[in-house]
Structures are given as C-alpha cells and as structure tokens.
Amino acid sequence: ETGVTQTPRHLVMGMTNKKSLKCEQHLGHNAMYWYKQSAKKPLELMFVYNFKEQTENNSVPSRFSPECPNSSHLFLHLHTLQPEDSALYLCASSQLGGHTEAFFGQGTRLTVV
Amino acid sequence: AQKITQTQPGMFVQEKEAVTLDCTYDTSDPSYGLFWYKQPSSGEMIFLIYQGSYDQQNATEGRYSLNFQKARKSANLVISASQLGDSAMYFCAMREGGSSNTGKLIFGQGTTLQVKP
After folding, report:
1. pLDDT tens-digit map of B7-34
2. Residue B85: phi, psi to the nearest 5?
3. 3-class DSSP assignment, residue B60
4. CB–CB of A109 and B50 under 8 A?
5. Residue numbers in A near B68 (CB within 8 A)
6. What is the rounded distance in angstroms from the CA atom of residue A92 to the CA atom of residue B96?
C-alpha cells in the first residue's frame, strides 16, 4: 500500500451538497495535515492534527470541518461550499520531533458547481 | 514572519543539462528545515531533498543537490543531467523547529520546469 492514500481522487459537488474527503496514512506518523492548492497559488495550510488533536486552524471557513478519529485517519467534511473552493486538496502526514519530511497523498481534485 | 520566495515562475532546460531552481526564505527561528518537492501533473507532492539549518554540508540525493547559503537565506535546488521525466512543478518549503514545531510546512509559489528533448 502507498504511504498516504486519499479518496476520492476527483469530486464534483453542488453548493448545497455535503461530502467528505478521506485520508489514510500507513506510515505510523503522529501528525496529519490538510492543505489546499488553488490554481496559481502556493499551497495553503488548512488544518494540523498532532496526536489526533487539532493544533492549528488556519482561519478556515466553517464550511470545512475536519475530523481525526485516530492518528491514521483524517477526514475533511464539506458542506455548502462555494465555487471558489474548487481546488486540489492534499493530505499529508509526518513524524513530529525529527527532521523527517511530510509525505503527501495524491490529492482530491474538487470542483464546486 | 516566515516566508518562502521562488522568483522563477517557469524554467526551460535542455535534456542532459543541469538546472538551478531558486528559493529564498525568511525566518527568525534559528532551527528550521528546508525541503524541495516535485509535483507532476498527477498532483502528488513527491519529496526530493531536505536541508537542516544546522547541517554543515549541502544535502545531496542522487541527481538532486541543495545549494544552501545560510547567510543569504537561500536554498537553491540543482538538478543535474536533466531528464524528460523531470518536467513538473517544483516547490520549496520550510518548517520551523523548536518547541513550537507542529510539523507544518510553508510553501513557495512554485517553479514550473520543462525539459526539452
């Protein structure tokens, strides 16, 4: 299995829909992250979870709701999104306390119509 | 405030030649890490190389090397013997260390590299 797996890979949703993005890591890491990558913009950190506890919310609108039930799984629940929320959403994991790099999933390409 | 700057939106290089992608950073933390990632069109971010702020030598990983100039706060990526498969977006990133380390990365704007046959 790959290190970090995201599902689905592609998602089209209406502004009134509710959907969830899923991320799973098989690396034994203790930290997980959600990043947003919009066209022609650098990656923006959305949420950080260390040991299942949210340690950072980077002023993300409440229509994005993260959930981390255990250190291997991370979800991003979406509701009443706007077209400008269309982007590539990347999940990553890392091991705190060392110099190890963050490992990324392949991302979910989200289109809000 | 911490910041990463990549001033080259796009670069071209001839196959088999070397290319340097620029990255400058700004931080007040004496302990930090610098990373380079490759993002092909598929979207996945692939880790290439890491340089710690206290490392005395420049990092190398195969055809990738990092030209770390601490006083100038630059961490340029050098790709030697470019291959067609190197065509992708490249991101420089920084993680601050110390007690406030949550592992989060700050990314630059990215550089699109195209390798010409």
Report:
1. 999 999 999 999 999 999 999 888 899 9
2. -70, -5
3. strand
4. no
5. none
6. 17
